[in-house]
Design brief:
Chain lengths: 572, 169
């Protein structure tokens, strides 16, 4: 029987899994794999500039294509640089398979050069992680990794590859089937439970759908819209669930939670049945637990049993894939009498519509509105902070517009690499990222990747010279003491006791140009439209648009961390 | 904040692989669950290990623990021992040092009462072996600490298996 090296088997396995793109950064322990990849043309190898950005790129690729994102990095620092990206993907249920190099087996435990116990380090932030200790296990482990990553609640899987195992000759067979006795993801829907839940829904006077990221991940949007329209039950979403139903749909109320719309949060407080799908009731959406949905019976559909009744006690739990469950629902549901309830919600919307105070120069809302107007089809990617919450509040997400972000972990530096990964996976779709000036600088080196990969992404920077979200908390709860949030602070400001500040750095326009990208700076609202028009014309390289934003812009409404609706701050 | 706070037991079938013990114990430390004792050993199938875990938790946390264990790829099966008939014992060694002759007499009496074995004997020391429930072992340790000047204790953690007939602990 033909024998091949582990390195060859790995590349064969990737091809059999249908991998088209691999995000990789080389090193001593993976150089043989790089060599095997060099010899083939089926898998495109993207070389980012930092392993953290590398995982985010694979992550965004996975989120926007539905395929498994594949990473290859070397041992030691290459592997540890994955940590933040793995945690990001784990939190937001993104399927990744990450290969890390490892020193040869006889060196493991010797504090060898570039040796770390990466499986141990990432144990709590991966869905599964394993070191391949025997060459004959390699094929099976890779097969299982792809299966585990994409099934059930998706997540990142890490495979650690000792260099000597990979050089060893062994079977050329890549298994066809998977059988893991401890891992049997749920593939059915408990019809009895579902019927009980539907009965509650039909009987309720104030029923409400709460859609989380699970609806988007499962690709259940279309069938969910049908169920919503058939039942006439209003919908609120989490930030990750935005777009579960088109945001311009008359039955969509808004996002709930810390920066949720007033009407959406009121609806949760007043509903008598909360029918939730694919959310884990994170503290940012529930606020104080005992005040959350106080009058409601709660139905919870989730693929992950551990997400059910963890934060919120649920009356009817249903463990199922969102799409399977909603598809079954569509067969049984009938129209609910919600006219009165919908009128109440409309009244709340009218009382406190979601809006920002107009700014004569330029408000973030002007920019987001322009994106909404100019793009009928797009993938929006955000970084983390004020701009993220504003995009989550105001971006129109429809069938043809998608929004991705680091929702659970809140990873700054996700925006730019996220846009790169999304564009690589969706070359024909406009990809627009929005970052703050803080987050943009956390992975700015990826401009090189974007230029070299010829990705005409539009990377927007909302530059307010501050770490805006933390500043917002300081403004509201810390007596305007802006410690550590002023991005112009430095030696001069310390020397002059805050009387003088250095000039802002970097000059993002020059920086973009130095990378070979296009740079545009916008300071007035009348120039926003033209900037996007110009960016659209630039089809070979990325365009960076820096918007100069007033640092006093705030994200409202806001419910204090751990607070209740009574603590909601509307504006001040 | 009681909500059914009590000691509970779980029996786990897990893959007999490197890192599994660390993953399970890491779940308890990472998520802030109490881990009272954990024993592990291989079974009749060398690829499978079985663990007995004791934890003090309330109802909700315990439900979470079971779910979190269940979703681990390496965990094959989770059995809740709290409310089913099981046989469960823990081994306990107590070495009593600086014994007077009177102490030794007393120790033999204790051994008889608790059905313990005196398994080793020195000029002024005695080694006792108890195989009984962890709760009874707790009582023994408390008693011995009060009665004797210098003792050395080592405990194995409970191991349990479902009963065949209806038998408790």
């Amino acid at each position: 029987m033909k024998q091949i090296s582990g390195n060859k088997l790995l590349v064969k396995a990737l091809k059999e899994e249908g991998v088209e793109v691999l995000f990789g950064y080389p090193g001593a322990c993976t150089i043989d794999i790089s060599d095997e990849l060099y010899k083939q043309n089926d898998i495109a190898v993207v070389l980012p500039r930092h392993e953290q950005a590398l995982v985010h790129e694979a992550d965004a690729y996975a989120r926007t294509t539905g395929k498994v994102g594949v990473c290859l990095v070397t041992s030691g620092p290459g592997a540890t640089n994955l940590v933040t990206g793995l945690a990001t993907a784990n939190y937001d249920s993104v399927p990744l398979v990450c290969f890390t190099g490892q020193v040869a087996r006889h060196l493991i435990g010797n504090d060898a050069f570039q040796e770390v116990d990466i499986v141990g380090i990432t144990r709590s932030i991966t869905k599964y992680g394993v070191t391949v200790r025997n060459r004959e296990d390699l094929g099976r482990i890779i097969k299982e990794a792809f299966y585990i990553a994409r099934t059930g609640r998706p997540g990142p899987v890490l495979i650690d590859l000792p260099k000597d195992v990979m050089c060893e000759l062994g079977s050329a067979e890549y298994p066809k089937n998977v059988n893991i006795r401890g891992y049997k993801p749920n593939t059915s829907v408990h019809i009895g439970q579902l019927k009980r839940a539907i009965k509650l829904l039909q009987k309720a006077k104030r029923p409400l759908f709460l859609a989380g990221g699970g609806v988007n991940i499962a690709g259940a949007n279309e069938v969910f819209r049908q169920v919503v329209e058939k039942t006439n039950v209003p919908v609120i979403t989490t930030v990750m669930g935005r777009g579960a139903i088109p945001t311009n749909h008359p039955l969509f109320i808004g996002n709930l939670g810390m920066h949720g719309a007033y009407a959406a949060n009121m609806a949760v407080s007043e509903c008598d049945l909360l029918f939730s799908i694919g959310t884990r009731f994170n503290d940012r959406i529930t606020g104080k637990l005992h005040a959350f949905a106080p009058h409601a019976q709660i139905v919870h559909i989730d693929i992950d049993t551990a997400s059910i009744s963890r934060n919120i006690q649920v009356h009817i739990p249903i463990v199922a894939d969102a799409k399977d469950a909603i598809t079954k629902m569509a067969e049984y549901v009938e129209e609910c009498s919600t006219k009165k309830w919908l009128a109440e919600i409309e009244a709340w919307k009218a009382e406190h519509p979601l809006t920002m105070r107009p700014n004569p120069k330029m408000s973030p809302l002007d920019i987001i509105n322009e994106i909404n107007t100019q793009f009928d089809e797009a993938i929006l990617v955000t970084d983390v902070g004020q701009h993220q919450m504003l995009v989550a509040q105001y971006a129109e997400i429809t069938e043809k517009k998608k929004l991705i972000m680091s929702g659970g972990l809140g990873t700054m530096g996700y925006g730019l690499p996220g846009a790169i990964g999304a564009k690589i996976g969706n070359p024909d779709t406009p990809v627009i990222s929005v970052s703050g000036d803080g987050g943009m600088q956390m992975n700015i080196q990826e401009l090189a990747t974007a230029v070299l990969e010829e990705l005409p992404i539009i990377a927007c920077i909302f530059n307010n010279e501050y770490l805006g979200m933390v500043r917002q908390w300081q403004k509201l709860f810390y007596g305007k003491r802006y410690g550590m949030t002023n991005l112009r602070a430095g030696a001069l400001s310390r020397r002059t006791d805050g009387a003088e500040y250095p000039e802002y750095t970097p000059d993002f326009v020059k920086l973009a140009e130095s990378y070979g990208a296009k740079g545009i700076r916008v300071t007035r609202k009348q120039d926003i439209a033209a900037a996007f028009e110009e960016a659209k014309k630039n089809t070979k390289t990325p365009t960076i648009i820096e918007f100069i934003i007033d640092p006093e812009e705030m994200v409202y409404p806001m419910i204090k961390p751990g607070g209740t609706l009574e603590d909601m701050i509307m504006d001040c | 904040m009681d909500k059914g706070m009590k000691k509970r037991w779980i029996s786990l079938y897990v893959e007999n692989q490197v890192g599994v013990l660390s993953k399970i114990s890491g779940l308890f430390s990472g998520k802030g669950y109490n881990l009272n004792s954990l024993t592990v050993g291989t079974t009749e199938d060398p690829t499978v290990s079985r663990m007995t875990i004791a934890t003090v938790s309330d109802d909700e946390t315990f439900e979470q623990i079971k779910k979190q264990l269940n979703r681990m790829v390496e965990v094959i099966k989770v059995i809740d021992f709290t409310d089913i008939f099981v046989r469960m014992k823990e081994i306990l060694y107590i070495k009593v040092k600086k014994c007077t002759p009177e102490d030794k007499v007393e120790l033999f009496q204790i051994a008889e009462t608790f059905k313990a074995k005196v398994i080793d004997y020195g000029r002024d020391s005695l080694l006792l072996e108890f195989v009984q429930t962890a709760t009874k072992n707790d009582a023994v340790v408390k008693l011995m600490k009060e009665e004797f000047e210098l003792i050395e204790v080592v405990r194995g953690g409970s191991v349990g298996i479902e009963s065949i007939s209806m038998m408790e602990r």
